[in-house]
Fold this sequence. Notes:
Blueprint (H helix, E strand, L loop, with lengths): L2 H25 L6 H7 L4 H12 L3 H19 L4 H7 L5 H12 L3 H11 L5 H7 L14
Helix pairs in contact: 1-4, 2-3, 4-7
Amino acid sequence: MTSRTTADQRRGDLALLRRVRDRIDREYAQPLDVEALARGVHMSAGHLSRQFRAAYGESPYSYLMTRRIERAMALLRRGELSVTEVCFAVGCSSLGTFSTRFSELVGMSPSAYRRQAADAVAGLPACVAKQVTRPVRNREARPAGP
């Protein structure tokens, strides 16, 4: 196998991974699982997971849940829906899993976030509020100073 063929294969794999990522971004509220995502790009679930992690630093499931939590944060800031309604609106089928994942990414429960966020982004344009409130994984968070 030549280096040219290997480079072509790598570009092809990256294009497929972008399709998977774009599908997650578009269809985050739909019932998605790694097997369905893999079928859509004609890969095995294991291969997709390994390649996706290598390219984006996280598994497809983790990426999906982050998108769902980002959308949930926006809905909770608006304050029009209950936490349970937000959970189902973003595609989660279990309130417990949603609350646990939300707390892991955001650092507080969805109900606590809802109470706090309404005041925190008051007066900010939506595009700025989205950037300011984007969830940060614990491993990416800066260590707290003394």
